[in-house]
Design a protein that fits this description.
The chain has five helices and no strands. It is mainly alpha-helical. It has a domain of 64 residues.
Length: 115
C-alpha cells in the first residue's frame, strides 16, 4: 500500500509544482511539463513493479506513437480559444484529439504496426 501512496504523492507533487510554476511563467511551466517526466516515472514504476524490459520497451514505443495525436490538443486549443469560452474550447480540442487517436490507431493497424 505504501508503494502506491509514494507513486501517487510523487506524481501529484510534480503536477502541482508545474501548475504553480506556470502561474509565474508559462514558458518555464511549458518546458517542465514537456519533459517526459511523467513518462519516465511511469517507466520507473513499471520496472519496479514488473522488472520486465519487454514491458518498459513496449510502453516506451506506445508513448512514442501516442504523442503524435496528442499534439492535436496543443495545436487546436489556441485556435478554439480565439472563438470559444475555455470550457468549450477544451471540449472541442479534446474531441479532435480523440479523433486523432482513433485515426492513428486505424492507420497503424492498416500498416501492421503493433504498439
Amino acid at each position: 500500500m505504501s508503494h502506491y501512496l509514494v507513486k501517487t504523492l510523487v506524481s501529484l507533487l510534480i503536477i502541482v509544482a508545474v501548475s504553480e510554476v506556470s502561474k509565474r511563467s508559462t514558458l518555464i511551466g511549458g518546458i517542465i511539463i514537456s519533459l517526459p517526466i511523467l513518462s519516465m516515472l511511469a517507466m520507473i514504476w513499471l520496472w519496479i513493479d514488473t522488472k520486465s524490459k519487454a514491458k518498459v520497451s513496449a510502453f516506451s514505443t506506445s508513448v512514442f506513437w501516442l504523442v503524435l495525436p496528442s499534439l492535436v490538443l496543443f495545436i487546436s486549443i489556441p485556435l478554439f480559444l480565439k472563438k470559444l469560452p475555455f470550457g468549450y474550447a477544451l471540449l472541442c480540442s479534446s474531441g479532435l484529439t480523440i479523433l486523432a487517436y482513433y485515426l492513428l490507431v486505424l492507420l497503424l493497424s492498416s500498416l501492421h504496426i503493433k504498439f
